Every structure is written in structure tokens, then in C-alpha cells.
């Protein structure tokens, strides 16, 4: 079917639908903008590929869903774009290296990418991803592969959220092993096998993807590039640059994947397993599995390469063999508990030795000796009076006090913290304003005078407090005789404190919380309002 | 109840696999060491050493130890710790493994403990120690005590080790803040040291961490940390050669009082070219 209008093509699944925004087949929303650095939707590459959404991002590049305009079918296109080395400018298609050194490394990687394409082009196996085309563009290169509709093994496991049985696991992995065997026969190793790289087409037919890390088993490593590996699925020799890789490297990764599939537990990182292996035997985790199966998996997960099965055929045979004789008595091959070892570890088999792991370290002998072993003198910091030391040859301008961190030459001024000084300034300001208010012409205003006057003359009769009932004993004009020293002294009165005076509310305003009575109310005989403030009047014999 | 346990069991499975890890191979380590007796002490109880491979500039082991104990016991302890750890890692085949460092530290602990038991006047002797091993693009550290390992990456300074001190525990429980810890009168009290106890707990990095070009690693004894703030340290380390940085750090610590022994090792991961 020929497509008339490219806009009808959904960028999420490459199906034709004329809907406005959300595709009914895959749920892809047309209006979601793609993230930075990726090619925009509907970019046309090589005059025949229409770019759609991103299928995945790996260490070395981005994989897009695309539409082959000539053959009218969906394809997957992998773009070589190592994000640590290069980037893409906004709204432009061409990629740019971050620096000249990165450019050199990028170009080398590009050659490797082409090599990956050539490697894959040699295979024609149902379980190995098929290569259709390879072309350069935008300062980088693109690998066109078949697009498989399905989910990765990792997604499948997450969706199912259930451990796989032995049969289910073998059903998926035996075809993968078959394909991998072909790869090995041609002299190549995959080196990045993990659940993310195994694709389940229609939930049944597995395909091995992402040969980005693949290298010829016989190539020399002249330039040491970065190594990308996935912890847990990579055997120890992958962490080293100078070790020799064998098919057992891939076998380890496959066995790690199967371990993960049937137990739900990711294998321990290889570097953690070299001494006192913490990884649990599959027999312990899943007692229901057949002993031959678990034995062959654990054998393939051996830390040392030479202990693992050396070819795929060997591994396949071990996995599928039905034991004719009764199985030998169960023996745990790994140490059950961690015991701190006080002896040095025994030397490993020759495989790792030849990898040049043995160190020949020698101590470096150029320690800089500071001049502190010379003379020193004491001085006292002028700011905080702490005793300090000053080295010979140094002046006061060079040093700082150990406690207050100020130079002795600094002028001694008391540093007030900012908040305190602000508070003091605010209080001063308020007082000033109040003073001016009281002594300004506002006071001479007759209405204000009538209001304020009574207050100043101890009447208390115009108090705004609603609950206030002035005790009859208080005469508006006469100064209260019972207050004594509870308030600021009234002129003319001697400052005498009555014997039972309670000073709890001294000086507090009417609206303050009463210490003796809560809620605040003036009680006759106990609280008395004087000059707009409350005073606690004692209830002793004085009354 | 059955459903609940079933649910609990299923929740634990099939979490997303880790992101792939990039291990660089194209780098060199440039390093400088500095040690100073300080302005007040009679002897230098710190010991430090850096071991390099003559064939491979990408491999290195840096150790700093701060000893304590009267009668020169501190010196003995720290020197012993450094030499034992160095020898253990030298004999080893496996690099950048936390376990190698753990066994090295335990061996050192045993030796110092035995020495202390045999020599009565050295009772209570001990030492802190921090070791950083870098090889094949991976690094890992082992740590006991209050010597520190810092890393500057992408303009951020991070303290990789946790102090085994009383004030560090108080900080963890939220009893005091970092600034209060700096000036706390009891900040020198250690909760863990080599040689004081037959059993110790060694801190290590959980797994070897990948190193990057431009990383700066600093191992230092508490003589530096007490006197120089983190910001000052970062200023002195960035954009300086390791030798310059070492000189600046030691001089700054001495200028600010310098009453304790000061030791630093600075490692910079640089591009091969």
C-alpha cells in the first residue's frame, strides 16, 4: 500500500492512521517532543529512510524506528553517537566532537562501527539480528537493521514478574545459543550478552541484538579504548584490557542471563567473586530445578575462564543432557560463609596470570617536606586572645588565627553579627519614632489630648478593654497607694513594696497573658489597672 | 496473608538491570606526596607511601596512615601499617578488589596488635589508615580511622570515606552540625583504629568504581582537615599540578596553626597525551 501523506504515518509504530495526536495502535502521542540530541521526527536519511521515535539508547549510540520509503516497511536504524565524545547542536543534524582528542577517538570508533556492520552482514541466522544497509551521513554512520516487533527479555521478565521455569528458559535461550554458536564459528565474540540485548519477537522467537561490543577474537588491541560492560553479566576478564577473550566469555554472560531468568536474582559483579565468592548456588535458590541444569549453569559461571565450558556445543550438551546414572550426592561447591582470611590468596590459574595482573609496584621517593620542622614563635591573637604559632620567615600578613580566623593585622573592631545589629537598629528606630510622636504637634492636638490626657493622669477610665471592670476602690485622679514598687515610680510616692506583692505581671500591658489568671481578666482585689498596665495586688493583710 | 507474602516475594524480582559501566583505559596517574611534622610535635607519626608500577603508569597504590601512642609507638604503628598493606597488595594478583584491601588491613591490624601485646610500653598504640588503589580504569579504597579520601570530579568535591570518629557518629545522629564538629573539643576521639583491637571493621568502596579523566584524589591525615576548609582545599587542588597542590596544602595548614602532623597525597588522572 502506497502512502500518500507522510504525516499519516505514526512515528511510534509506523502504522498508518489519520488520527490527530494519539495513535490507536501503539498509544504514541504525536505532540511529545523528542529529547535533545536525537534526530527530529520525519528526518529523511539517505533519501529513503524516514526517522521515527527512539527505540533505545546504548553506550555507543541511539537506535531509531524508521520507515523504508522504497520498500515500504519498518526498519531499525542505529546511529553511532558516543555521548561522551560527541554531541549534536540544537536544530542541526550534523554531530560535532567535543575536542580534537575526542574526534580522533570518535573516528576510530566509527571504523569499529563499520566493522560491526560487516561482521553482522556475514550472518544469516534466524536468531541473530539481520543487517540490511550501512551508510555514512551527518559526520557519522548509520546501520540499518530489521525491525522486530516485540519486547526485550528484560521487559518481558519485568512484565511477567515471575521466575521462569527450566523449560521456558531453555526455550528462549537454546535458539540464542545456536545463533551465538554461528557467531563463534566465524571467529567473533559478542561480549555484551544480557537480557536487554535479547529480543523476543512475538514473545517466542528470540533474536540476539547489539553487537556493538563485538570484536574479532583474534584482533589485537592496539589502541586501548574505553571498555563498556554491564556489571553482573560480564566475567572478570572483561574488566581488564590485556586479557585474552575466549568463547567462554560469552558463555559466562549467557549463563548469567539464565541464572537471572530462573531465580530473579542478578549475579554478583565479577570483581566481587574472586575471593570468597558470595554468589549463591542455583540449587540453593531454586531447589526445583533439575540438578544437571543447575550444575551446568554454575560451571559456566566459574570465575576462571578455563574452568568453564570452552565451546557453545559443550555448554548446550551439558544443559540438555538428561543424567542417565543417579546424580552424585549433593555437595556445595562454594564456601558457605565468609571467613576472614589471614593468609594471602593462593595464586590463580595461568589464564589471569598471563593477563599480566601481577603488580610490580615500587615505592615512590619524592616526598615534599614542609618547612614546619623549623623554628616557630608564639603570638596572641589581638581579637580573641588565643595562643597561635607563627613560623620563622612569615609575617603577620600571611597568617590567620586558628580560632577566629582573622589576621592579626586586621583592625580590632567588634564584629557584630548582622542580625543582632539589625535588631538593635530597629528598636532604636521604633523608640525614636515613638518619642517624636509623643512630643510632636500631635500631642498638642485637642482631640488627642482629651484621649491621652486621662491615660497619663492615671484615670484608666477610658481603657478600651471590654472585660474591664474598674474596681470601685480606685479613684480616677488619685495615684494608687497600694502599688508601690510594682510599677515605674509615681512621682512623689515613696517606693515601698508591700510585703506580699506579686510581681509576676509587673509592667505588663492589659492585653498580656496573666500569669496568675488565665484567660486574662482583671479580678477585683487581685489585678489592678494602673496607667494602662496591670499590677498584681497582693491579697495579704495589707488590704 | 498468603497473598501478601506472595506479593512481597514478587516485588523483589526483576528490577531493571544496571546501566552499563564505562571503564577508561587511556590515562596516566600523576602523583605527589607531602608530609610535615607540624609546628608543635616532636616527631612525625604520620606515614605515607605511594607505590607505582614501573611498567604500567595506570596502576598505583596510595596509603596514608596517622599513628598514635606514646614513646614513638605512633611512628612504629603507622610505618608498620603502611608497609604491611603495601606488601600485601604487591604480592596480590588481583587489583582493585575491595577484598584484597580488607585482608591487607586485617593483616596490618594483627601485626600491630601483636606488637603492642609484646611491648608493654606500646600498649594502646594504633594507627588510622586509608589506602586507594587504582588499576585498569578502576579504583577502590580501604579505610579505618579519621584519615580522609576526597575526590574532585566535575568541579564537585566529595569525601569518599566516612570518619570513624565520635563526632562523625554524632553528626550522623543529627546531634551536631558539621561546623560544630570542626571545633568540638572531642573531635580527636576515634571509634576504630588499626592495632587497638584484635577485630576491626574495614570500610571499603562497595565495588570498584570507574575513574574518569580529570579526577583528582586527595588522601590526607587529620592535620590537614582541621586547619584547611573544604573550599580552600578545592581551590588549591584544581588547576594545579600535584606537586604545587601538595605544597600549597601543607603550607596553608601550617599557616593556620599546624599543630598536628600533616600528610597529603594528591593523585590526578590525566589524559595520556
TrEMBL record, chain A:
Gene3D superfamilies: Phosphorylase Kinase, domain 1, Transferase(Phosphotransferase) domain 1. Coiled coil: none annotated. The keyword Amino-acid biosynthesis does not apply. Keywords: ATP-binding, Kinase, Nucleotide-binding, Serine/threonine-protein kinase, Transferase. The keyword Chaperone does not apply. GO terms for molecular function: ATP binding; protein serine/threonine kinase activity. Residues 462-481 are annotated as: Disordered. Residues 49-331 form the Protein kinase domain. ATP binds at residue 78. InterPro entries: Kinase-like_dom_sf (IPR011009), Prot_kinase_dom (IPR000719), Protein_kinase_ATP_BS (IPR017441), Ser/Thr_kinase_AS (IPR008271). PANTHER family: MITOGEN-ACTIVATED PROTEIN KINASE KINASE KINASE 20-RELATED, SERINE_THREONINE-PROTEIN KINASE YBDM-RELATED. This is Serine/threonine protein kinase. The lineage of its organism: Bacteria, Pseudomonadati, Pseudomonadota, Gammaproteobacteria, Methylococcales.
Automatic annotation (TrEMBL), chain B:
InterPro entries: PP2C, PPM-type-like_dom_sf, PPM-type_phosphatase-like_dom. GO terms for molecular function: protein serine/threonine phosphatase activity. This is Serine/threonine-protein phosphatase. CDD domains: PP2Cc. Pfam families: PP2C_2 (PF13672). PANTHER family: PROTEIN PHOSPHATASE (PTHR47992). It comes from the Bacteria. Gene3D superfamilies: PPM-type phosphatase domain. It comes from Methylovulum psychrotolerans. SMART domains: PP2C_SIG, PP2Cc. Residues 30-269 form the PPM-type phosphatase domain.
